[in-house]
Design a protein that fits this description.
single chain, alpha/beta, Aspartate Aminotransferase, domain 2, 2 domains, seven-stranded mixed β-sheet, binds pyridoxal-5'-phosphate
Length: 395
């Protein structure tokens, strides 16, 4: 007798898709396991997977999901790491790592130039958890050493910092951290793995806001961290309850983005070099901050770390101050005024009138943000169009 004759309409709607044999042919694109939970026909297996939580089998997608794991394996391979873990955003990854390593009474040494969200997390959540932080100029290794205390449990910086693009000397910083027995954690968002593999320089944990270059199209929020199997498993176990996990659909979009990562970065680096050279010659621009230029304070380190290109992030200081900055932004036609970075589109922000208005001018200048500073995330547009657009906006 046919089930159709026995089961009601809705029961059939719920249960008729169960496959017979597994599909033998491999789909070229990764399947999307858009499922919150997984069902079992063997109760011993159910119990075993329930016990293992983050490794070995799938029980519930907050613990592990096959599509998210496919992204984690891909990122680990690109970073040259044993393992990686994915989070719902870059901040989700940063929070997971820092709260896993630091607790009450611990001390953190961190770079002074950091992404605003990270700075806020350290100064609010970590501080409330009883973690004290000293912020230092990460290019001043004597200052880094001087900030270390008996309670220091980690050193944290960005491979290229926000917003003035200081470049961290990863091998020297890793040596300092390891001499004192704690890890060097870096946010490598500005330097995707086709340009730089931080772990090769002794970095212990490499974090990316995959929202930016890895996903690459401005349509996803995601975060990843790479490191040893042991370190990653511990971070995941510590965060099974906090829930900032990546969704399968966002993992799939990031996997698709990663396929063209190196191709996009080739174009982005070439566009950035052309723009940086143009700005350096331009009368309307006082200063250009780009690690690929000989005038950048850490150019030598940048050259040794970034052999395939200095990335797509740069900052320029316009001659006319805050009003010039605002007018410049309004006159751009191809580059877009928008927060975020690492997209196919060229994105431009003017910190003094948008992202840092809560600071006084004096406070802004301490962090290096002058009234005329504009930060540019170079995209994949045709170089000639970008050059013309910036040139007409500067006129
Ligand atoms: C955007 C960004 C983050 C945060 O990533 P989200 O996905 O927005 O949470 C962290 N670090 C850097 C350097 C970033 O640019």
């Amino acid at each position: 007798m046919n089930d159709d004759d026995l089961l009601g309409f809705t029961t059939r709607a719920l249960n008729s898709s169960a496959p017979g044999e597994p599909v033998r042919e491999m789909p070229l694109a990764e399947p999307i396991y858009q499922s919150a939970t997984f069902s079992f026909d063997d109760m011993e297996h159910f119990a075993a997977v329930g016990k293992s939580k983050v490794s070995g089998g799938y029980l519930y997608s907050r613990w592990a999901n096959p599509t998210v794991d496919a992204l984690a394996r891909t990122i680990a391979a690109l970073e040259g790491a044993e393992a990686a873990a994915c989070y719902a955003s870059g901040m989700g990854a940063i929070a997971a790592v820092l709260t896993s390593i630091l607790g009450r009474g611990d001390h953190l040494v961190a770079a002074r130039q950091l992404y605003g969200g990270t700075f806020g997390f350290i100064n609010r959540s970590l501080l409330r958890d009883g973690v004290d932080t000293e912020f230092v100029d990460i290019t001043d290794h004597a200052a880094v050493r001087a900030a270390i205390r008996r309670e220091t449990k980690a050193l944290y910086c960005e491979t290229i910092g926000n917003p003035m693009l200081p470049v961290a000397d990863l091998a020297s910083l890793a040596t300092i951290a390891h001499e004192h027995g704690f890890p060097l954690i870096v946010d490598a968002t500005f330097t995707p793995p086709c340009l730089l593999q931080p772990l090769a320089y002794g970095v212990d944990l490499s974090i990316h806001a995959a929202t930016k270059y890895l996903a690459g199209h401005g349509d996803v929020l995601a975060g990843v961290v790479s490191g040893t199997q042991e370190a990653i498993e511990r971070i995941r176990l510590d965060n099974v309850e906090t829930g900032a996990v990546l969704a399968p659909w966002e993992a799939w979009l990031t996997l698709r983005g990663v396929q063209t990562l190196a191709l996009r970065l080739e174009r982005i680096c070439r566009n950035a070099e052309s723009l940086a050279s143009m700005f350096e010659e331009h009368a309307g621009v006082d200063r250009v901050f780009y690690p690929g230029l000989g005038s950048h304070p850490q150019h030598v380190i940048a050259q040794s770390l970034l052999k395939r290109g200095a990335g797509g992030m740069m900052a320029i200081e316009l001659s006319g101050g805050i009003e010039a900055g605002r007018r410049f932004m309004e006159r751009l036609r191809i580059a877009r005024a928008a927060a975020s970075l690492g997209s196919t589109h060229t994105l431009v922000v003017h910190p003094a009138s948008v992202t840092h208005t809560q600071l006084t001018r004096a406070q802004r200048e301490v962090t290096g943000i002058s009234d005329g500073l504009v930060r540019i995330s170079v995209g994949i547009e045709d170089a000639a169009d970008l050059l013309l657009d910036f040139d007409q906006a500067l006129a």
